[in-house]
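Weekly modeling sync, notes
Attendees: S.R. (lead), two postdocs, one rotation student

Agenda item 3: backlog of single-chain predictions. S.R. asked that every request posted to the team notebook include the full sequence so nobody has to chase files. The rotation student volunteered to paste the first one in as an example of the format we agreed on. Action items at the bottom.

Example entry:
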Amino acid sequence: MSNFQNHGLDRDLNTVVMDYLISEGYPSAAQKFASEANIHPTSGVNSIQERIEVREAIHSGDIQNAIERINELNPLLLERDHSLHFALLRCQLVEMIRKCPLHSDDPKPAINFAEKELAPRAPTNPQFLHELECTMTLLIYEHDKLPSDLATMLEPAFRKDLAQRVNEALLKEQGERTKAKLFDLVRLRAWSEHKAREAKKDIPEHLSLGLERMLTGRGKEPMHSNGEGEAMVA
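Predicted structure, as returned to the notebook:
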């Protein structure tokens, strides 16, 4: 392969990695990578920290704070995306119910919130009504005796899935990809490898994507944290 082709491949891989850092929320890593790879990041880099703060608020159960931050970033987003707005309000209701176990604290604040914020929206969509009914059912069970289909609302994954939806919505509003190109590349590579092995092609037992050097700061220390306490994995 010529030097020109190598340069083109490096440039394309740099773009893929930068897209990943922006989409998944690694602000310091994105700035450092842009500097070392001598590329100009898109405007999305400036919003990474703001999106991380929204994500952290949702992960911690502070949904009101998350809603306020979303409205500061994009005042029209929740007005237009009724499903996302309802999901946030529903999660806020779940957090209120979490704090008032059966036979303990007064459930009235949660009930009042549901009547004021969610009940008027529920009739506009059958799914909203179903989700509100399921959420209110949390009030009649001890939290450690919930049926499995209800217990999922009190698990960390419930918050995490919502945070991912919000992140994708904010990216879309900013004109950015909602899914990093790197994930498409990984899926395509996995499919190609599977087909090659099916055809009995002579390929190594383990194949690398070749991104390790880039995702670890071009051979230097790993770049960490996207607001979830997780390091990047090549």
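Discussion: group reviewed the output briefly. The longest helix spans residues 3-24.
Action items: rotation student to repeat for the remaining queue; S.R. to check formatting next week.
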